[in-house]
Design brief:
This protein has 2 domains: 1-115, no CATH class; 123-190, no CATH class. The protein contains 6 helices and 4 strands, in the order H-H-H-E-E-H-H-H-E-E. The protein has helices at residues 8-12, 28-46, 53-64, 97-115, 130-138, 140-161, and strands spanning 72-76, 83-87, 178-180, 186-189. It has a two-stranded antiparallel ribbon with strand order 1-2. The longest helix has 22 residues, at 140-161. The two termini are 38 Å apart. The relative contact order is 0.09.
Length: 190
């Protein structure tokens, strides 16, 4: 069993779980990508085109993520002296479900434990029309400016609804941008 970081067990009251190595090569998604990605690249090559570099990086990193032969650490428990090999992960944001889930869980824990105050919180979801999704995907700075405008509109609405003025009220926002839908389609939403 690997130890939890100092202070985590005592403060949360949760006991550390035994380490179980993730084996991406056994998942259906991994097997499909491993089998068909080279064919997709070859098809583009015969057409005289190439997949965008960011797509190639995502797939390449995904195929190396969690594989012991691509690098690992030997981790030893300080209390029981049990040892495990922990494979390096790609830590990518886009395609890898394992790294994406870990990042999502870590982000949620950070927000709940350290960012959100002990005040009511509201969630707003902004879905944008398809032409704007393509614009935001190709020019992310524009998306940042649009999110600033949306935040100011929502903050002003909430402050007015509460019957307060800008001088007496403070609002904040955390924006998480989702770039892919469930079918891995382009889906810029915040």
């Amino acid at each position: 069993m690997l130890p939890m970081p100092a202070g985590r067990e005592a403060s949360s009251g949760v006991r550390a779980q035994p380490y179980v190595r993730h084996r991406p090569e056994r998942t259906l998604l991994y097997q499909l990508v491993e089998e068909h990605y080279p064919t997709l690249k070859a098809h583009h090559a015969t057409q005289g085109t190439e997949l965008p570099a960011y797509v190639q990086r995502e797939f390449g990193a995904y195929l190396e993520c969690g594989r012991l032969e691509r690098g690992f650490l030997r981790v030893r428990c300080e209390s029981c002296h049990d040892e495990h090999l922990v494979a390096f992960s790609c830590k990518r944001r886009g395609f890898c479900p394992s790294c994406g889930a870990r990042r999502m869980a870590e982000s949620a824990a950070l927000l709940v434990d350290e960012v959100f105050p002990e005040q009511p919180v509201r969630q707003w979801v902004l879905s944008v029309p398809y032409p704007l999704r393509f614009l935001f995907a190709s020019r992310p700075a524009i998306m940042g400016r649009v999110l600033g405008i949306v935040y100011r509109c929502i903050a002003t609405h909430l402050i007015k609804k509460a019957g307060l003025s800008r001088k007496r009220a403070q609002t904040g926002a955390v924006t998480l941008i989702q770039r892919f839908g469930s079918a891995l389609n382009l889906n810029s939403a915040a």
